[in-house]
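REVIEWER CHECKLIST
Item 1: Sequence provided? yes
Item 2: Single chain? yes
Item 3: Sequence as submitted:
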Amino acid sequence: MRILIFGNSGSGKSHSAKRLSVDYGLAHLDLDTIAWEPGQIAVPRPLAAAQEDLDGFVLQHPEWVIEGCYGELIEFLLPHCSELVFMNPGQEVCLMNNHRRPFEPHKYASDEAQERMLPQLLEWVADYYTRGGSWSYEHHRRLFDAHAGAKREITGPSGLGCEP
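Item 4: Structure as written out by the authors:
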């Protein structure tokens, strides 16, 4: 089982991936941990470095769940996945989930630092549906629609069978 989950921030990717990881004993990778420079906020790593990490992860773990919003990394992983899952519950659900997001120590030095970033995150979440680029709804939709393998689109607020 090699499940690749993608979608907007707050769509339920992380919660669903953690649940699948526990329920099925899958290695779990949050693409946030390789897409950004460690210890820095909003400083992207070079794409080649992130792809090298992905190659290593896929080689080390025969069964996994990987989740994130980074279209270029999702596209890189498509040949390796046995199932593609597009989390697409809509803007309202994504905004609501970001308002109630627990502290993420792998992203922020403190709860206060995370709270200070919330207005920018909410703006970014809303912009998902109108912006261009590989982290946009338009790009995600194209990846999902073009994928010939097993795939599911989750449009409800509860993710893959569990409340975020």
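Item 5: Key structural point noted by reviewer: Residues 2-154 form a domain with the Rossmann fold fold (CATH 3.40.50.300).
Item 6: Recommendation: ____
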